[in-house]
Specification:
2 strands; 70% helix; 2 domains; 312 residues; 9 helices; two-stranded antiparallel ribbon; mainly alpha
């Protein structure tokens, strides 16, 4: 199995996991969370939606179908990793982790329905998606490099600053999930909320966003000052731009009372912020590619002296 095919499948898996977040947001924002009121069936007598369930049933069942498609992509990716020559343990393990996450998503989705859209379970559903985005991102990137030990490209203080920035990014996403569980758009008009004050938890979320932007801007300047590799500086710059765009959407949606289009855009933005975070972490290290055997054989040893034919 070719590396190019495995690379395309891993990218497809990454995109599909982001797509699952967006369609999950559509389910919640259209109040279709209980469009299929039971699980694993859609109704007590059918695995598929029925005409009587209307558009809400179609939307919820469509999200379930995307989960099935995601599982098929993950299975194809795992088979491609197994058949890749030479076989690489890292690719097999990452593709296996991505595949095992899909039934995990199905189970959590089922618990979400059976608990009438408990906001904490809904949040866990989203966070597992972010974990799967991390795994599929790593898999996609690992198809582009070898298995040599990683090599840091920047000094330790810069790596510490990057880790702190990534931690702030994760905190923003987690608190954002809690904000979602406290506000409207619960997925069903009768679904309960987490009981937290929306204004208070939104303020905490906004404070973390400001912290993240400050750290990421500082990281970009620090990388430039340290003459870090261009891909690292570029990744940090993209990170700042994505954050600012996401922050703008977040503030506009808050002050316009959470219109569904902006909330959906904000959900997509959360995925993009996390991917941009992973991209920065990845660009601060590399894996030197070892020379091919033919190249190694053609390179003269430094202690070897070639005797000219005229002298010999």
């Amino acid at each position: 199995m070719s590396t190019a095919l495995l690379r395309r499948l891993s990218l497809a898996s990454l995109v599909a996991n982001v797509g699952l977040v967006v369609t999950g947001a559509a389910v919640r924002l259209t109040a279709s969370g209980l469009g299929c009121p039971t699980w694993p069936k859609c109704t007590d007598s059918s695995y598929t939606t029925t005409r009587a369930m209307g558009v809400h049933g179609v939307i919820e069942f469509g999200n379930r179908l995307l989960g099935v498609a995601l599982g098929l992509i993950a299975l194809a990716t795992f088979i491609a990793a197994l058949r890749h020559k030479p076989r690489r343990r890292s690719l097999i393990l990452l593709s296996l982790a991505a595949g095992l996450g899909i039934p995990g998503q199905g189970v959590i989705g089922g618990v979400t329905v059976l608990t009438d859209l408990n906001p904490w379970v809904v949040g866990l559903h989203f966070l597992l998606s972010m974990a799967l985005i991390s795994v599929t991102w790593a898999l996609w990137q690992r198809t582009k490099e070898g298995d040599a030990p990683t090599r840091a490209l920047v000094a330790r203080p810069l790596r510490h600053l990057t880790a702190l920035t990534a931690l702030a990014s994760a905190a923003v996403i987690v608190v954002g999930v809690i904000v979602t569980g406290s506000g409207p758009h619960a997925g069903d008009e009768n679904a309960r909320r987490n009981g937290l004050d929306p204004a208070t938890i939104s303020q905490v979320h906004a404070d973390l966003v400001f912290l993240l932007i400050g750290l990421s801007v500082a990281l970009w300047f620090a990388l430039r000052a340290a003459d870090a590799p261009a891909p690292a500086i570029r990744a940090a710059g993209v990170f700042v731009v994505v954050e600012l765009a996401q922050g703008l959407v977040g503030f506009v949606q808050y002050f316009t009372h959470l219109p569904v289009v902006l909330v959906a855009a904000h959900m997509l933005g959360a995925c993009l912020v996390w991917v941009a975070t992973l991209n920065v972490l990845w660009r601060l290290r590399d894996r030197p590619t070892p020379p091919m055997p033919s190249q190694a054989a053609s390179t003269p040893h430094p202690c070897t002296t070639t005797i000219p034919a005229s002298i010999a």
